[in-house]
């Protein structure tokens, strides 16, 4: 008789049977938050398709259309659902493109934070001693300065030294670099704490005995056991990075008016809010609040699910 070999379940089947998926299905807040985030993300990625106008194309912008209210208000125009800004750009189109820039800055800055923090945390926790002391004191110094303070100083000095034109060309890159470098200690401290616990376990001793190199032990064996807290931190840090970018744009150190983010849209409309053109600031502000709120709610849910001591079912 031939023995029948039972096929192993697919990854999708394993995911559907996981605690993570069952917890998600039970949590209505997580479902609503994920749905809203998915809609915002999809809309921003499909901005060239969904937007009736290209706010970056000056041939599609008419200054005579400036400050037209949303179409549900008196004097509104059917062409502009959410009205227009002070430059005559369609607010709906500009918000779609601006959300994409804000999300890009948030995600890329967090990837940079995670890379720096994971590498430094692994090295500090694994080797310990003087290396650990030096890197953690460096992290303490970094944490003593707020992200906004570091960003304001660096961006202001860069703008003063190299001029506003060069800064506008490199604004996206500069924001990612500054926000990313300013927040790496959050990851480094978390990863280091996990590595200190993991390096004393038997599988690490076994890897050393068979002659594996330190970098392979750190990145191939210890690192996977640190990913749960890193994933939780990343979710929250995306929201923080988006807020930081919005704050810097509001102060005039963010994205240029020609390529606005949500923060720069709010900033550009703030001077018109008391003159009656409230939609230029309020509507992007609502989108920013919703985006940050749903990301934070997802981060809180993931923290509870991935930490059995906090999850209550």
TrEMBL record:
The keyword Oxidoreductase does not apply. PROSITE patterns: ABC_TM1 (PS50928). One of its GO terms (biological process) is transmembrane transport. This is ABC-type dipeptide/oligopeptide/nickel transport system, permease components. It is a multi-pass membrane protein. Keywords: Cell membrane, Membrane, Transmembrane, Transmembrane helix, Transport. It is found in: Cell membrane. Belongs to the binding-protein-dependent transport system permease family. Residues 99-299 form the ABC transmembrane type-1 domain. The keyword 4Fe-4S does not apply.
């Amino acid at each position: 008789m031939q023995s029948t070999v039972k096929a192993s379940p697919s990854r999708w089947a394993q995911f559907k049977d996981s605690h993570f998926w069952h917890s998600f299905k039970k949590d209505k807040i997580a479902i609503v938050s994920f749905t809203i985030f998915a809609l915002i993300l999809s809309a921003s990625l499909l901005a060239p398709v969904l937007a009736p106008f290209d706010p970056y194309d000056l041939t599609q912008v008419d200054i005579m259309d400036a400050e037209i209210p949303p179409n549900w208000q008196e004097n509104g125009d059917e062409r502009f659902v959410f009205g227009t800004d002070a430059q005559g750009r369609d607010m709906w189109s500009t918000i779609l493109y601006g959300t994409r820039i804000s999300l890009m800055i948030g995600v890329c800055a967090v990837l940079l934070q995670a890379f720096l923090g994971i590498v430094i945390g692994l090295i500090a926790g694994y080797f310990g001693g003087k290396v650990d002391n030096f890197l953690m004191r460096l992290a303490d110094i970094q944490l003593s300065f707020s992200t906004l303070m570091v960003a304001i100083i660096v961006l202001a000095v860069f703008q003063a030294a190299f001029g506003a034109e060069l800064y506008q060309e490199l604004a996206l890159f500069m924001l990612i670099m500054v926000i990313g470098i300013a927040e790496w200690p959050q990851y480094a401290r978390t990863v280091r704490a996990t590595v200190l616990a993991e390096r004393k376990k038997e599988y690490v001793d076994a890897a050393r005995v068979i002659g594996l190199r330190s970098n392979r032990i750190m990145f191939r064996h210890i690192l996977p056991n640190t990913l749960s807290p890193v994933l939780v931190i990343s979710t929250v840090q995306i929201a923080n990075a988006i807020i930081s970018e919005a704050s810097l744009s509001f102060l005039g150190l963010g994205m240029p008016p020609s390529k606005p983010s949500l923060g720069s849209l709010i900033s550009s409309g703030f001077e018109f809010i008391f003159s009656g053109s409230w939609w230029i600031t309020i509507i992007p502000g609502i989108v920013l609040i919703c985006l940050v709120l749903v990301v934070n709610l997802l981060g809180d849910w993931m923290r509870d699910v991935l930490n059995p001591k906090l999850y209550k079912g």
